[in-house]
């Protein structure tokens, strides 16, 4: 599973709208495997396909809450409620973190890698990650929504 290069803010591709997946084939499976590898290699909690240069509605998330990786194809948020305001970062915006308000709870529908639909409810940090990654599919970055941006400390 090779990891793929992550696009960084300023790259026009990150601002484009991704298209739905139509074929749940080996090419999709390879993309998902590579995205997982890339996310873990970068110590991220989520990754959307446009971040690796693919304009398709594909997301992987692992918020390290014990559930492992969740693959989401053509995801849609069905309902959301509450709000939470906290710091957020992005592998495509390596130099900054920002404070973003997101729903506290949401229910989403998506397809798995074999084309089976599922629905899931997410709360807290998981809900934040879902919102953040779905924004990527519409060309939106957290910096567009952040109330405050702070430069990360130099490593
Ligand atoms: Ni991101």
What does this structure look like?
With 155 residues, the chain is an alpha+beta fold. It has a single domain, classed as Peptide deformylase (Peptide Deformylase), CATH 3.90.45. It contains 2 helices and 8 strands. It has helices at 26-41, 124-137; strands at residues 46-48, 58-61, 70-81, 84-88, 96-102, 105-111, 117-123, 148-151. Strands 1-2-3-6-7 form a 5-stranded antiparallel sheet, sandwiched between helices. A 3-stranded antiparallel sheet has the order 4-5-8. The longest helix has 16 residues, at 26-41. The protein is globular, with a radius of gyration of 15 Å. Bound molecules: nickel (II) ion (NI).
Order of helices and strands: HEEEEEEEHE
- Main beta sheet: strand number and arrangement? 5 strands, antiparallel
Task: Indicate the mean pLDDT.
Answer: 96
Number of strands: 8
Any idea what the radius of gyration is? 15 Å
CATH class: Alpha Beta
Low-confidence stretches: none
- Helix/strand/pairing class, anyone? alpha+beta
Q: What is the domain tally?
A: 1
Shape summary: globular
CATH superfamily: Peptide deformylase
Bound molecules: nickel (II) ion
* CATH architecture descriptor: Alpha-Beta Complex
Task: Determine the number of helices (DSSP H or I, runs of at least 4 residues).
Answer: 2
Q: Helical amount among residues, as a percent range?
A: 10-25%
Kindly report how far apart the N and C termini lie.
28 Å
* Strands ordered across the widest β-sheet: 1-2-3-6-7
Percent of residues in beta strands? 25-35%
CATH names the topology as Peptide Deformylase
